[in-house]
Each structure stands twice: as structure tokens, then as C-alpha cells.
Amino acid sequence: MAALAVLRRSAPARLLSGTLCVHSRVLAPWRQYQSNRHFSNDKILVEMDESTGVAVMKMKNPPVNGLSLELLTEFSISLEKLEIDRGCRGLILTSASPKVFSAGLDITEMCGKSAEHYAAFWKAVQEMWLKLFGSNMVTIAAINGSSPAGGCLMAMCCDYRIMADSPKYAIGLNETQLGIVAPFWFKDTMTHTVGSRVTEQSLQLGQMYPAPAALKFGLVDQLVPEDKVQITAAAAMAQWLSVPDHARQITKPMIRKPIVDRLVKQREADIDNFVSFISKESIQKSLQAYMDRLKQKKQ
Ligand SMILES: CCCCC/C=C/C(=O)SCCNC(=O)CCNC(=O)[C@H](O)C(C)(C)COP(=O)(O)OP(=O)(O)OC[C@H]1O[C@@H](n2cnc3c(N)ncnc32)[C@H](O)[C@@H]1OP(=O)(O)O
């Protein structure tokens, strides 16, 4: 079954055998979507180039692309659509806002809300991670601005990261600076990207790295001038897509599946941990103080 799934993604419909072409008729509803070159909802815009099989997904939640429940939900639905679309082989993830890729989780979703809300929010964060980190497609992050915490997580989920070459833009998992703790799967994702030693230090210090520093230890793979980020991502994607899909798609989970499985096994416990941690009065105070500091910075 797994091999069939891989084959179904890797071969364009016209190259498939009779049996699989019958499947394409069964899947008529998404073929309707396939004919659209663009689809968008409030927070996510997708532009699909059917000639290359590459979708560009833009987060659009101004001013800073905070990962709200709404954005995360739309993100997962959009990614799911692309994942089952046999015409789509690659995803470029970027921001519709200049200067910020994503400010990470929307802190207002974690302040002064009910336990039910926190649980729903955290489930959506998990879902985003499971879908993006576990994607069968080639995923490239075109990081066109700052990318703290959850924004960095999203970028690290991708197969390749291209960032705007400016010391004004920083990336990293800064959770401890907010008085909160990145969960084990954020840590696993960073370890997967840059190794244990850098992760240990970065996570404890909640360190944000200007783009040039991030390149030095492999948190990002390539820096290019800000106005070249998208075109470079498209070129890198073409290179990744020159590898036969079936071989690449069997290789990727050899490394990622054990990491995905760790969260899958502990999803409910991880939600309970988050809800109990974030509901603590001391944590709420800490987040509120951080939000106040962000606002004061402007005055
Ligand atoms: C407990 C379990 C672990 C949970 C794991 C948590 C993961 C996370 O992702 S927590 C979020 C961490 N994110 C940050 O620390 C980013 C904070 N933001 C910034 O550093 C900056 O905003 C920036 C570099 C992303 C952009 O800077 P700039 O262009 O100068 O924009 P402003 O700082 O003026 O922000 C504009 C506006 O947006 C509000 N805001 C910024 N970040 C967030 C956020 N993450 N959530 C909610 N709101 C955010 C900021 O307060 C400003 O609001 P107004 O003053 O009302 O305009």
C-alpha cells in the first residue's frame, strides 16, 4: 500500500497504468480543485503551477503572521489538499508580509483563554507540525523575514531553507525568553536540523540568530538578497525535483518517521501537558509581561 501511495504521487496521471487511472476517476472531487491555479482562504494563499508541480503557499496574517488557531487550521487543510494532489510534487512555504516570515505562535491564543481553547489550539499546532514535517512533498522554506519560535519550527520542518540575507532578520527557538518551554518535538526538530550540541545551547538560551549566524551552523541552508528569495527557492525546488520522486519519498521517512511517531504516540499527553503548563498563573504573567514588552518596544 505504501509503495502504491508513493507511485501514485510520483507518476503523473497520464503515465499511470489503467488500474491507477480508474483511481483518478474515483478521486473526481479533488480534480475539480486541481484545475484551479490558485486557492485561498483568509490566512493562507496557495498558487499552484501545474506545469512544474510546485505550489507556493503564503501565510497572510498581518502584521506578523502570528500562528493563530485560524491560520494553523487553514494551513493544515491546504497542505492536506496538496498532499493528495498527484500533480503537486513540491511546496514552497513563505510569507505574504514583507519582513516577517512568521512571529511564531500567536501569543494571544495562549493568554487568558479556557482550557478547552488551549487544547484545541495545541492540537492545531501539533497537526501543522505532523503534516509539514511528515510531508511526502519536497518542502522548501523561503524565509523572507524574521522567524522566531513557531516560525522557526515551520522553517525547520522543511527539507531546505533559504533566508533573506540581512542581519535585521533573525531566526531561532526563543521560547525560554518568554518564560515558556519548547516541547520535546520542537527540540527533536531542531536536533534533526542542527544537532544536539547547538540545540542544547540554543534552546536553553532561547537564542535568536541573525541570518548570517544561522547559516554558519546550518539552521538555514542558503542566504540570498531579499528580492531573490523566491526565485532561488524555485531554482532549488527544480533541483530537488530532478530526483525521482519514489526514491526520495522512500528515503525521507527513514529519517523523519521515528521523530513523527514519537509525537503520534504521545499526542494526548502532550496536549494535557501544554494545557496544564500554559494555564499556570506564573506562566500567564510571564506571557503577559512579554506582550507588554513587545508593545513598549514601539513607543
Ligand atoms: C508552552 C509551550 C511552548 C509553546 C511554544 C511557543 C512557541 C511560540 O512560537 S511563542 C511566540 C514567540 N514569538 C516571539 O517571541 C516573537 C515576538 N515578536 C517579535 O519579535 C516581533 O514582533 C517580530 C520580530 C516578529 C516583528 O517585529 P516588528 O515588525 O517590529 O513588529 P512588532 O514587534 O511591532 O509587532 C507588531 C504587532 O504584532 C504583535 N506581535 C508580535 N509577535 C506576536 C506574537 N507571536 N503573537 C501575538 N502578537 C504578536 C506585537 O505585539 C504588535 O502588536 P501591536 O502593538 O498591537 O501592533
TrEMBL record:
Highest taxon in the source lineage: Eukaryota
Enzyme superclass (EC): isomerase
Gene Ontology MF terms in the entry: delta(3)-delta(2)-enoyl-CoA isomerase activity
Family annotation (InterPro entries): ClpP/crotonase-like_dom_sf (IPR029045), Enoyl-CoA_hyd/isom_CS (IPR018376), Enoyl-CoA_hydra/iso (IPR001753)
Catalytic activity: (3Z)-hexenoyl-CoA = (2E)-hexenoyl-CoA; (3Z)-decenoyl-CoA = (2E)-decenoyl-CoA; a (3E)-enoyl-CoA = a 4-saturated (2E)-enoyl-CoA; (2E)-tetradecenoyl-CoA = (3Z)-tetradecenoyl-CoA
Location of the protein in the cell: Mitochondrion matrix
Primary localisation category: mitochondrion
GO biological process, one term: fatty acid beta-oxidation
EC number of the protein: 5.3.3.8
Pathway(s) served: Lipid metabolism; fatty acid beta-oxidation
Keyword terms of this UniProt record: Acetylation, Fatty acid metabolism, Isomerase, Lipid metabolism, Mitochondrion, Transit peptide
Subunit structure: Homotrimer.
Family: Belongs to the enoyl-CoA hydratase/isomerase family.
Functional summary from the UniProt entry: Key enzyme of fatty acid beta-oxidation. Able to isomerize both 3-cis (3Z) and 3-trans (3E) double bonds into the 2-trans (2E) form in a range of enoyl-CoA species, with a preference for (3Z)-enoyl-CoAs over (3E)-enoyl-CoAs. The catalytic efficiency of this enzyme is not affected by the fatty acyl chain length.
Protein name (record): Enoyl-CoA delta isomerase 1, mitochondrial
Source organism (scientific name): Aquarana catesbeiana
Lineage: Eukaryota, Metazoa, Chordata, Craniata, Vertebrata
Gene from which this protein is expressed: D3D2
